[in-house]
Structures are given as C-alpha cells and as structure tokens.
Amino acid sequence: MCYIGRNDPKFTLTFFKNASGQQTTIAREDCIPYSAAALQVVDRGGSGWALVSGGTQLGLLVTAFDAAVASAVAAQASNECFIGRGNTRPSPYAFTTEYWRGV
Length: 103
Known about the structure:
Elements: E1 2-4, E2 13-15, E3 30-33, E4 39-43, E5 49-53, E6 56-61, H1 64-74, E7 79-83, E8 97-101
Antiparallel strand pairs: 1-2, 3-7, 4-5, 5-6, 7-8
C-alpha cells in the first residue's frame, strides 16, 4: 500500500502499487467513475492542489508535486473507490480507505 501526501490524513491519497489479481469481495463498491484522459491538477490557492476529472474532484493535496503524482496513479485507473466513506466519526478521514481500480 502506498501513500501520496502522507503528512495529513485529510490530504492523503492511498493506492496499491500492483494489482493483487484477487477478486473483490465487497458486495457493493462505493466508486466514483472518471475519465483518465480528462485528469487535471488545479491550484485551489490556500486550500491546496486538486486532482480533477471533468467536474469531479478526486483528491486535494498539499503540494503541486503530490497532485502530479496522484494524477499519474489515477491515470492508470478509471474509478476512485472508498470503504467507510460517509462515516460519522469525529475524524471521518481517519476511518476511510480509498483505492483505485479499472472498469
């Protein structure tokens, strides 16, 4: 498991370096489809650097470098997926795992 922007959980993107070849056992995946061809890194000023595809923001990172690395990872997939998204804990980012996958 790899991390981009690991210093702050709110601004960290996670990914697996290589596919495991295993079939998922998640009954209903929580995924956001996007176009890899439309990926862009956008300066959001004091908020950070956003990774976007069309009108969908896929991530927010602290530095332009981290956002560019995230873009390279996202370019190899077509879905950003989550486990635990929407939880109601006081720090929801700490209890959410994300992963990237193809179609």
